[in-house]
């Protein structure tokens, strides 16, 4: 099975892409909604949580792990790869970086994400590894996750906040913008309208699944339609956002640590 | 020592009131920043966390516990009182209710808080216990906590969001509004400007400390100036908000579970 974890339900946008691009593979999902969000927390805490999340997925049959959370990808991917060296681990950052580097023409790339992701500097570092001539402009947008979780994806307040976050990037003249958080694809329209329709948006959820597809031959994955969706805390509100993020019906199951 | 816990740093507004109203008593604070916020989580999870938070404070010398978090007060106060029957436990809801009931003239009271607090219906229930003729109007304002934590306390975006949250309450003609979340005192000006200056704002942090002061004779509390401030996850950003909330310098110390 393909295992996906996230700090909450945002990683379901990755599952949505798996269902779209790889409909023959079963998925086991874990959303750490009892401790969500990870975005403002420290590296040490995020590594501890990501390790627990991975253990959970492995114990539920995962054969490959996708870190469906940019914050955990930024802060904990290396530690997970080291600890679980016999399990393929994919993070959402490198595929988005690869895509952005191939797409940009004017070599000016923007990155938006949570405070944790942006402060880690991981996007900038990985972009520069592939092409040191690219200029990277990063902005933390901490209110985007709560706005998506309120389902305020096209409210005037959200547009106003998006304009404030993005106006600095706009003046830099970027031609490519990485959506460095799995919640942000739900704000694509607002973001595009504020940053300008000519700026290409790179969606990390979509890119990591393309990468998985390319590497599928290397893994001996079971096929089948099943999906299992676990969260560490379940409320009716979480159930609602989950369906919004996945774009379809989903039955979440609560699991205690 | 007076023990205060909260899901994060919001409960520091309670400590600020202790410093103001009871400057001779030492405080031990625990903010569960590794699992913050509690506001959108389930009752069972909140009870589990509140119990762990209380155990931590007791092991650090607390003789009386203030639940400095409306969500935990709403969801876990009864369970804590039962479990720790030999320790006085104060929650932030009843004192604010008492105040609001004594203040309202037209018997129309508004309550704002997190989704957890509002869904619990605890304010409405407690108000009706004191005066069944009072009409209670409640609104969840889930974006207020992230806005305070971004330090966006007087931005136009915040005013716009406040207007949207409060416009329904305004049409009801309330004359009293309970700020049912320890973060909200930092939004007092915005809230007052949107709900109308004639509406009395009741601040749960301030009221719970008045209640403690009245009951002080019953407790044999140590005096002294010391304050100890623990959080389960520490970042520079949390350190900054903490100072903003406390209105003064504070050294946070990180503790792992």
The profile of the biggest β sheet of chain A is: 6 strands, parallel
Unreliable segments of 5+ consecutive residues of chain A: none
Helix content of chain A: 40-55%
Of all chain pairs, the largest interface belongs to:
A-B, 28 and 28 residues
Q: What is the chains' assembly state? A: homodimer
What is the CATH architecture term of the largest domain in chain A? Answer: 3-Layer(aba) Sandwich
Mean pLDDT of chain A: 94
Cα-to-Cα separation, first versus last residue of chain A: 21 Å
Please explain how this structure is put together.
The structure is a homodimer of 257-residue chains. Chain A has 257 residues and is of the alpha/beta class. Chain A has two domains: 2-91 and 207-254, Rossmann fold; 93-204, Rossmann fold (3-Layer(aba) Sandwich), CATH 3.40.50.1860. Helix content of chain A is 47%, strand content 17%. Chain A is built from eleven helices and ten strands. A six-stranded parallel β-sheet of chain A has the order 4-3-1-2-9-10, with helices on both faces. The first copy, chain A, starts with a strand and ends with a strand. Chain A binds chain B through residues 33-35, 40-42, 45, 115, 142-143, 146-147, 149-150, 152, 155-157, 160-161, 164, 232-235, 237-238, 254, and chain B through 33-35, 40-42, 45, 115, 142-143, 146-147, 149-150, 152, 155-157, 160-161, 164, 232-235, 237-238, 254.
Kindly list the characteristics that best describe this protein.
homodimer, 2 domains, 257 residues, alpha/beta, Rossmann fold, 10 strands, 47% helix, four-stranded parallel beta sheet, globular
